[in-house]
Structure formats: structure tokens, C-alpha cells
Amino acid sequence: MKNKLYTQLVDQKKAGKKSFAVLIDPDKVDNAAIEQLVGLATDAKVDYFFVGGSLVISNHLDECIRQIKTSCNIPVILFPGSPSQVSRYADGLLYLSLISGRNPELLIGQHVLSATQVKNSGLEIISTGYMVVDGGAPTAVTYISNATPIPADKNDIAMCTAMAGEMLGMKLIYMDAGSGAKRPITELMIEKVAENIEVPLIVGGGITHPEKAYLNCKAGADIIVVGNAIEKDASLIKEISDAIHSVPVTI
What we know:
Blueprint: H1 4-14, E1 19-24, H2 31-44, E2 48-51, H3 61-71, E3 76-78, E4 92-98, H4 104-120, E5 124-132, H5 140-145, H6 155-167, E6 172-176, H7 187-194, E7 201-204, H8 210-219, E8 223-226, H9 228-232, H10 236-245
Parallel strand pairs: 1-2, 1-8, 2-3, 3-4, 4-5, 5-6, 6-7, 7-8
Helix pairs in contact: 2-3, 2-10, 6-7, 7-8, 8-10
């Protein structure tokens, strides 16, 4: 079915159900690590795998996704750091436009260069307004993007940025403090954004505890993404998944 993933995301939001996505960087996992992650994610009823990274310097992307797909039925969505991070083996691709920055290459420039490749991939393409929020430490995404993140206490700027992205036609809004952030995005900022947009809201970066994932969902996040913390302790998958899926359904 066309737009199957996006329809699922919207339906989940309408039903008031929260989702958990485990982020896998192909540069940081080998086959054994993928096997472990898939097993833990399946047992924990994880909703999605996001696959990608700011660089992806290895040639492991296709292999990584194929291994995930042959081992479970959890949808795999590309979270690309560059136009080269496209794999036909995935189920979909977040087509990211860095709406929080003012670097034209990441607003539209790289999209022009990658348009034919992305179109011909056969993937479900989901336009995503990507917002980088200051997480208290330099991250790969801020360095690669050459863009200043939204200050952590500027809730109105975050709100207006998300609103603009939605009105420009973005199907998702993704707020990210970056991998290894010292501080995650505040619940107050998440709440401010969530109250003023209708499209699904993804939140990631600096989430290291189940309680924070739970509070982010209570504040209005529809999908929680965790990568760095799970790289350090894969057992967190079940704890975080349980926390997210225990959030009371509100419609």
C-alpha cells in the first residue's frame, strides 16, 4: 500500500499510541551486535528501527538493513545523514530538511542532488522537518550541518519553526538534541511544539533513561528515538520500550 508507513504513523497518533524507534548507526555495529539488537527489540515489541548516521563511512548499510529485515518484521526506516545513505532494502526514508538551520545545502541543496536517486529507490519517502536543539555539547550533526542549533530554552523559536515546517508541507517534525547530548530536549519545549502542530512529532537525543522517554511522551512526543544509550547498554531496549508503551492513551 502506498504511504503505508506514514499512514501507520498518523493512525498511531490519532489513536493516542506512542512508538519507540531504536536507532542503529551502521558504522558502530557488526553482525553479532545487530543480531543481539534485533532479538532484544523483537522481545521488547519495538515499533521501528531507524538506520543511519551523520557520516556512515563503512559499506555496511545494505548489509545491516538486510540482516535486520531477514531476522524480524520490524519496519526499517532510513535516517540519512547524506544523500548517499539510500538503500533499497529499507521500508522507508525520512527525507530530512534541516529547518532549524540556515544552511541552504541542508534545506534544499542536497535534496536536488539526491532527487533522482531517492525517487528511483522505490522507498516510501516521508518529508521530515528536522530540528536540531542544543544538547549542551558539540555533536556530529551540528558539526556536519554547519548550523547553529535552537537554544535549549527558546521554546517559542522551536514552536514557530515546527509550525512553519508543517505549513510548508512537512509530514513529520523531528526534534533532535543529537547523539551523545549532555541534556535532552525539555518536556516544556516538546509540549509547546506538540500543542501547535498536527503532524506526528519525533523526539531524540540524550534520552538515557526510561523515565525521560515516558515524560517526553506525556509532553506530546509521538515517537521516541534512542541510539547512543542503547549502544552502551542494549538491555535498556526493554526498559525504555515498556516505559513508552505504558503511557496512557489520550485522544
